[in-house]
Every structure is written in C-alpha cells, then in structure tokens.
Write a structure and sequence with these properties.
The structure is a homotetramer. By secondary structure, chain A is an alpha/beta fold. The first copy, chain A, has two domains: about 5-125, NAD(P)-binding Rossmann-like Domain (Rossmann fold), CATH 3.40.50; about 150-315, 2-Layer Sandwich (Dihydrodipicolinate Reductase, domain 2). Chain A has eleven helices and 13 strands. A seven-stranded mixed β-sheet of chain A has the order 8-9-7-10-13-12-11. In chain A, strands 2-1-3-4-6-5 form a six-stranded parallel β-sheet, sandwiched between helices. In chain A, helix 1 crosses helix 11 (about 315-330) and helix 6 (about 130-140) runs parallel beside helix 11. The first copy, chain A, starts with a strand and ends in an 11-residue tail after the last helix. Chains C and D meet through helix 7 of C and helix 8 of D.
Chain lengths: ~350, ~350, ~350, ~350
C-alpha cells in the first residue's frame, strides 16, 4: 500500500490558496498537512468561503513543518522570502507561488520590486517552475518558483518561436486580458463589482507590469538574445481566465501549417498544452476551470503572426501549475489530481 | 428671463451622490451650488469617477448654504441628522436621501437603528417623499425624506391594493432582488467583483432589513390597519435595478382586468408609473437608467395575486426621485430633467 | 479486474448532454458507448463545443444499444417517449432527463403538455429519480425519470416539512431564480446575451410552469394531502445555478434549532444535501459546478419559515443527478464520478 | 417659432435602430416622421423592446418620404443601396448607417463584400461621416455614410499621428474589444448568453474584418501614403462599448507631453473627443451611454506609443454619430440631443 504524501499550504484564504486547497484535497496521492491564514487563524475555511468541505486554519508560526513533504506558499511577495527560508531549512521542498524567487538575477528583482532580495543563495537555486520548459530541473528542485499567470500564457505562447529563432527584431507586443480574480481577494475600488462590471480597462500598460521581467528572461534565454516585451494588461468583467493576443514579426515568411507543425512538435506529449487546428481561435471557454493552455496561430501578413494563448489564471496560471510542479517533483504522473 | 434655482449636494462621491450630480447638472432649471465630500474635499469629481464633465468637491463645513435654494443630502444615516438641522436652520429646503427622517415615529427609528433620534421636531415635520402618494405635502415641505430604494418599489406596487382594502390577512410576502450598486461604493467582500459575479445571494431575509418599517408604515396607513411585510432581499450580479415580486392574498376574487383598471386609475396621470398590459411582466430592462416604476399583475389563483414592480435603485429609488421631489417643491413641471 | 460499465448518451450537444458527457467520461467505472446528436451527427463534439477531449457524434438511429448497459436520454419532451421505448425494449436501463416520464398520472401529463401520453405502461413503471426520496426504487428500476431542475431544489427544500406534516394550509409560495443555461442552447431572443445581461426577468409566473406538477406530486405524496405550489421562475444574468426562496406557514411555532434538527436528521448521510448552520444563507456560490443541494432555514415570524435551496441546474438539476441515479442503479458508490 | 425638422428611420428594430429612435425622439429640434421594420411592420416598437414610449412600425415600402427632411438607414449592407437610392431620388437627405457607402472605391467595396457596387455614382458622392475629420463636407452632403463602430475608435485614435506624419513604417497594430451589441440582435450561437458570458474570444483577427478598409482609407489619406492595419477584434462579456488598444512605432522619439499637446490641438473644440491627461487610461466606463470618444496615450519605449480609444459602439459608433452628422447637415448646434 502506497503511503500518502503530505503537503502544507501557507496562505490558504486568498483566491489562489483556496483553489490550491481544493485541488490538493481531491488529489489522490496527497493529503493536506496544514493550511495557514494570517487573518483567519483559528477559524475554519468554511467561515471564509462558501464551501461544504472544510479545514482548520492555523497561524503560519504554528505550521508543523516536520509533518509534511512539501509546502506551497501563497503569500504576498516580500512575505514569501522568510517563509520559504524557514521551509527549506526544515528540509521541506517548497513551491512558492509568489514572485519572490522567479527572477534569478537579484538586481532585476530589486529593480522591479524596489527592495533588495534578502535570500540570494536560495534565489540562485530556485527553479522557474514552467514544467513544459524546465521539467528536469523541477524534478530535482528543493525550491520551485511557480510562474506568474500572465507569463505562463505569454511564455508558452511564444516559446516555440523563440527557440526556433523565428522572432524578428528585439521586441514583441503582448495585449493581455485577465479576469478579476487575478487582482486578488483584497478590497479595492478597482475590484468593486460596480466598477468592474460592464467595464473593461487597461492598467499598467507599456513596460510597467511586474510580470514583464519573467517573460523577458525566459524568452530571451530561449532566443539566446535579449527580447523586450511591450505588455498591455486589461481587466475583463469576468472572474477567471487570461487571453493573451501576441504580435510577432517573423524573420522570414512561414506558412500557417509549418507554424502549426512547429508548435505541435514543441508541445508533443504535453498533457496541458493544446494547439488548435488552423482556423480555430483560443478563447477563455477552452480553459476556464482546467489546467490547460490553449494556443492558436493566425497569420496577418506573410511575416506577421498573431498568437493567442488562453489559460485559467487561477489554475494553469497558479494553483494547478503548482500541483503540476509538485507531481513532477515527487515522481507522480504529471496529470494526477488535475484532470477536471 | 427666468432665474435659475441653485442646489447644493452633500455627499457627492457615493453612487447616489454621483448620479444626483449628473441629473442636476443637466436639469434645465437648476444649477449646482456646491458638492461636498468628506474623503475627497479639495479634489475634483473627475478624480473620483471616470467622467469628462467636472465639479470641485468641498468639505461639508465649507458649504455656502446662503447661496442655494435647496440641499440634497446623500449622507450615511446618523450623519444626516446634524447636516439636515444645519440646512433647515439656514432657511434652505432639504431633500434627505438617508433613512434619518423616513420613520415618523422616533421609537420605530430607535428600534431599527439602535439609537435615539436626536431631532424629533424635524422628524415630526418631515414629509415622506413618494410624490405619487404625498405630492401635496411634498410641495409645501421644508424637509423631504426621500424613500428607500426597496420601499419605493414595494409601496408603489402594493398601494392600490392597500388603499382599496383588497389585502386579506395582516401580512404580505415580498421577494426582492437588487443590483450591487444598492450596497454602496464602500469596500466589502460582499461587493467584491469575484464574490458577486456568477453568484446570487439572499441577505437579511425575514423581518430584519431596515427598509421594512417604511414599507409597513406607508402600507398600513393606506390600509388603515397594521400590515406586516415579510421581506427577502437578494443580491443580483448586475449593477443597477430592483425587481420586487410580491405575493398577496386578496379579500375576494378579482379578475386581472379589474385589477389592471384599479392600478390604471390609481396611477392615472402619473408620469413615472407604468402599469403593463395583461400578460406582460415587469423586468429590469423596462426601468434601468430611467425614473420609472414599471408594474405588472399576475393572478396565480382566484384570490392569489403576484405583483412585480421594477425600478432603477439609483434613479427612481434614490436620485431621480429626489429630483422629482425637488421639482414638486419648487413648482416645476414634475418631469423636468428626468426625461431620459 | 472489474469490467467497466458502458453507457450511451442520446442528445449530447445541448448544455445538459454536453455536461453529462463530461461527467461520464471522467467517471472511473463507466465508459461512453456512444453519443448521438440530430443536428451534428457525423461531426465530433469538439466541433460543437470548445473542448480539448473529444467524441464522435452519431445519429440516434445508429446507436448500438446492444453494446451498452445503460442509456441517458437528453432529448426534448415528446421526442423522448419513442427513444425510451426503444432503449427499454433493447433491454437497456434508461435514465431519461426529459419530462416525459416524470408525471405518473397520464392525465396530468396531458393537461400540462397538451398531448396524450403514448407509453402509459412505461409511465406507470418509471421511477422518479430523486435518490434522496426514492433510492430503493431507483436501485431496481428499468426506467428512471430524472427530475426537473427547479423541482429538485423545491422538493429537497420542502420535503422534511411535508413529511413531518408541518405545512399549514394547502399551498406554498416558491420564488425561484435560474441561470440562463436552464433555457437551453436553442436560439431565442430571451437568451440573446444583450437581452439577458444587465437584466432580470420573471417568466411564466403563477401556476403556469411545467415543472409545477412534479413538485406538487412529490410534496403532496410526502404530506399525504394535496399541496398547491405558487411558482415564480425568474431569469438571472448568469450561466449556472438555481436558488429557490420558499415561503411556508408552519402548523405551529417551531424554533430554528428544532427545524435544523429535523432537516439534519432527514438528510443524515446524504452525500449531496448540505444543510447550513443557523444564520448562514444558501447562495449559488455554494453549489455551482457541484452535485450538491445547499439548504438554509430562516424564521420570519414564529410560524413563518423561509427555506432557501440552491443547486447547479446542470449538475444536481440534471446531469449530475442522472449519474447519481446511474450509480444507485448499478450498485456503485453513489458519489462515484461526482466529487468535484 | 421654429419649425421642427422631420426624420424617417429605416430599420428601427435592431439595436442601432432602436437606439436611434430613442435619441431622435428626445431631440428638441426633430420629430420622427416614420419608423420601418421588415419583420415587425404593423406592430408597435413596444412589442419588440421593453419601452414605455412608443411608435408605430411600418413597412419600408410605405414610408412617406415626401413628409421628411432626412432619413436614417439602419439596414444590412447590400439592402441599403436600393433604399438610399430611393431616398435620395425623393430629394431627402440620407444618413446611411450600413457599410454600403463608406468605401469610395467600388473595387475595394467589391473586394471586401464580394459583390459589385450597384450605385457607384452615389458612392462617389457620399461623404464619410466622421465630423471631426470631414465636418464641412458633411454639412453640404446629400448622402452621408456613417462610419463603422471599430473604425470610429481607430481613426479618431490615430488621426493626429497620421496627419502629423509621426507613424513609422507602413503598418500599425490594433487590438480591439467590443461588447456583444456590436454583433446585432440577430440570433446566433456566438451571441447566446451562455456562450458569451464568462468568456472572451477573438474573431476574424489578422486582416479579415470588413471594417479594415475604412480605417486604412482614412488613415492613409491623412498620412498621404498607404497604411496597413493589422486588426484583432475580440468579443467582451458586456453589452456596450469598444476599447481599441493601438500600437504605433513613432518616426522619432516624442515626449508624452508633446504628444498630448498634439492631440489636444487636433481636437481643440471638439465636443465629443476627450483626451485624458498623462497617466490616465481610457476605459469603457468613460464612454458608455455617451457620444464621446475618450483617448489616452502611453509611451512604452521612446518611440513606441500605445493609444487607447474608447467609444460606445451604439452611440458614437453608430446612432449618436448619425445624429451628430444630422446636426451638422442641418446647421444645428452639433451637440443638440446628444448631451446625456
């Protein structure tokens, strides 16, 4: 009889944490060791969310790290650094969903987050947890930095072009649209129902959003030269889902079928990447409530390509991908607990 | 040449206040004397709302009451009492959109708001500003208490039955549904987009909501005996609009056409009450962004009547009705500035 | 090694059929034998819905009934009668999601559907598939009539009161609200996005909706005397979910805790009925994308009870309940394939 | 005393036609001469839309052209050509809201609409009705072709750059998002509530959408050389509003303040164009239910500019702009009837 793995969850009461608890509790090979919440320690999860199953919420300081095999951290950036340090020092493998360990260069971190990184050794060791690109490194990692939601859609959408050296020039344009859950459960006028409903709004457009350095780092590495991403996020009047529409000038004309072959080969065998046939376009409907990334390709001119990539920001863009990384780290079938 | 009237607005930066500013600035016979905001005094309205027209926001204490003919007060209950006192003492006619002067009996106020009323003389004088019922008193009033949003739909929907003594028993059932703007612009988890979108939820159902005593007072007065209202409000995943579905047992069988005649006669000449022909049902679509109340009647059995009444909670349920009252008070055509 | 069961699905391309395919394909003990579609026979399901998994669609006439253990029928009422006859004659157990076999009295069927029933023998044999009330009969049935969506919420919500003889008088009031998927995938102005968005509308209110006789039959049987249901359905601007708000006069005062005990005992051990603690209210959020029915109780007066019952109209109100019935019929754990 | 003008409306029962009727009936200097509907001739408008005001619907063939000064045509493309011919021959000035007279080159029309143009003389005479660019020609026109909704946002958003010769290269990228009313009131799966709600989908992206030739013609004329537009429309889960996010490489670095000055000067005195101050971004909330176009400018790099332009597709993108053109044609104040 197989022994169950045990995982702890830090920060269980945000949208990401709640969804992670829900995935992990149904995962056939893991059980939840603990779930923490700063604000709601001492309560139960059903006090915080409308859900019939339940779990006790404890303070992070009371987390029994010696009882778990892995810890997921759904904490705000900055707060994650000391928590990850504590987890790793306890010999527990960590999957960090914050931005704290995604940028391997501490100077880039400081530039975008306006504060020096205080655990540069762990930063150097952390693996960027996009399994489709870094599966092997994830498998052996002590610390996995789970990618941001926007970067997951953008990197998966452009990686085959970058790796194949098909991108002309040194920049691409990414026009992304996200559901409101991406803004978190904290209260702000921006996420007030009346402000977001029947509205659609760009924010932080140009070269301002903190998800940009992740995209640039991964795509530049694949391309083997620096690539700059002009990135325009927009807020959609819905809860879940990201669609990124990406505009690339190709170094030379390729046909749609050649491009589809390239994508098909690059992602052959990937259980969670779904390349649509010619003529179909990726939509939120393809991916909401799944761990999939759906990609479509459209030529706008002979060297002008439009890539659309859709994910569920809470699943493939956060908690689902975290569990996918967990499965890779612990040698489980990669889709375990993620087929919904 | 006619002189323009001048009106001041206290509390211009909530949803009700903002909508009131928007109606008043387009009103052909009034101009805005001032607009106050506690939090945003010193800013302009366009700093707070996406709007191309604009107005300066001042502190309530700086309001030049000697320059205006009337003041609208869009303040939280409790805060309205001293502000109304100041307005009335300055000889300015007041239209109060809070709950502070709606319940003529100070004991009922204390019972529902858990605090004694501190201006019982003004309370005794205040007129309940539902023009369809109290037009004459409104015309002469120094202080008008603008009705609550739910009560506007319920009282207009049931008044013809109450006045005609057609209601059997001593209670009615009211099942109401409101858009999220009714909960105000303050921040709370209840009004977070992700919580309210793709959701529908009852709240304060039974005999708990503070709008109940208004309904009971007006309907009991029309009926000339006490009527109790079982009231179930629900939150709709949309911005504006209230639909109240009301269940009444009739004292004796009436036909749908007799009932439609009764309603038609009761509201004959009313510019803002719209009784639908047999077979049609009131919906939000009939009323959103208008000052109308649309009513439909359906017999469920020979003595079982269902009345549906729809209004826009921000217009006929608040700011539009306030301007309607203003028009009555100042002898203007009642629809001025309200035909949209 | 256990042999997999096989099930066929008639009418796989409506919202109910599509959701059923999605549940059955993930069910660990069943595989899909065939899926039919009148309009899309010869296509694949991914031609009709945005989904990455797929299945061939065949004409109903080509369905290989000899290869399956059970058939689910998601056909329009009327069309289901001959299809069920064919299935049953082939020795295949049938779960019919249409209204054709829900009303055991052929005269009641004729009265509500304006056409005589043409398979009265099968009608007499059919079991009303609400497992919480009729589990044993379902287990042995050759033909199960899966309940309507509204009736599922109403019957589960009122059954404990009816069985305990707590309902005063001979009628109850049910005010229900449903997401738009309940209206099906057919095209009509009522389900046009622009008409339903930012709107909320009653329809067929009073004593007109065809789901009424199911509710009345089941509740009258539990109560052992005729009960009439005044029923007001409304269309919500969302996709999935039903909330029914029900108003009952009790024969004598009961406390909230006594009522909660009654409900708790009635549904003890039921995996899909969830009675909320005092003070909590049922919402769509509790049930969307699950097979649960969440129920809350609120006293509005000492003998006036408000029951709120929420379900997902596509799951517990249709396809999930159909699979629950299947599990009961084939002796499987009742929750198999339904834990989401 | 001023005589009222009279206008007829062809095609009053689509979303554009209905909105046009609503604007015209409130216009202080026009009255509605007639309103036609192919499907609903003989009915009244309130049979087709939930509205308390009303108007009779007649067949197009019965339109009394001799009684009106102008006709608005809200007909499908193709159908508009013979109707416009009839109107103009009757000596009535025409404002055509279809695509039939927007493309001055008949070969371009044939290329995009797959059918030869059958009224090339009128085509040559027609004025493209974007008053901000062609006010003088509109004033004297017998036939005005009202621009498409997407082109209105795109042309107003890029015109200052084109006129000033600031656009580098021969193409721009336009990523547009529109509410569902843009797809019309006809029935299709794409506009079914359940398909569009909680979804977001690109369609006809690249160089396929029929609004492209309008954009290219107007911008190329301003730029005085051919400009190609890569255009990606997307469907938003809301009713009204278009936001176009446009990516332009500048011929040389310009500062944000220089660019804002250019836009400010270009649109100085324009009542319906609203350029936001630096740092603010255009959203649907700025424009829904108004005749405004709100524009924001953001530099993404020293020569990389992002222009966001928002309009209400039914107002500035259709019926409001048609009335603006009418006002210009008849020498009225341009904002008459449009200040809402």
């Amino acid at each position: 009889m197989r022994t169950m793995l045990k995982a702890g969850i830090f920060g269980a009461t945000g949208y990401t944490g709640f969804r992670l608890v829900d995935i992990v509790r149904r995962h056939p090979e893991v059980e939840i060791g603990f779930a923490t919440s700063e604000r709601s320690a001492g309560s139960r999860l059903s006090d915080v969310f409308a859900c019939p199953w339940d779990i006790a919420l404890i303070a992070a300081g009371d987390a029994p790290l010696d009882e778990v095999d892995a810890a997921f951290l759904c904490l705000p950036h900055g707060a994650s650094i000391p928590a990850v340090q504590r987890v790793v020092e306890a010999g527990v493998r960590a999957i960090d969903l914050s931005a704290d360990f995604r940028l391997s260069d501490p100077q880039v971190y400081e530039q975008w987050y306006n504060t020096p990184h205080t655990a540069t050794d762990l930063l150097a060791e952390a693996v960027y947890g996009l399994p489709e690109l870094h599966r092997e490194a994830v498998a052996g990692a002590r610390l996995v930095a789970n990618p941001g939601c926007y970067p997951t859609s953008v990197i998966l959408g452009l990686y085959p072009l970058a790796k194949q050296n098909l991108i002309s020039g040194n920049s691409v344009i990414v026009d992304s649209k996200s559901g409101v859950s991406g803004a978190g459960r904290g209260l702000s006028l921006k996420t007030h129902f009346v402000e977001a409903h029947a509205n659609f709004s760009p924010y932080n457009i140009g070269h301002q959003h903190r998800h940009i350095p992740e995209m640039e780092a991964e795509l530049s590495a694949a391309l083997d030269r620096p690539l700059s991403v002009t990135f325009s996020p927009h807020l959609l009047p819905t809860n879940q889902g990201i669609l990124s529409t990406m505009y690339v000038t190709l170094v030379e004309p390729w046909s749609e079928s050649e491009l589809l072959s390239l994508y098909g080969e690059t992602y052959a065998g990937e259980p969670f990447v779904h390349v649509l046939p010619a003529g179909d376009l990726a939509t939120l409907r393809h991916v909401v409530n799944t761990n999939r990334c759906t990609i479509s390709l459209t030529l706008a001119g002979e060297d002008q390509l439009i890539v659309c990539a859709a994910i569920d920001n809470l699943i493939k863009g956060a908690s689902g991908q975290a569990v996918q990384n967990f499965n890779v780290m612990f040698g489980l079938e990669e889709t375990t607990g993620l087929e919904t």
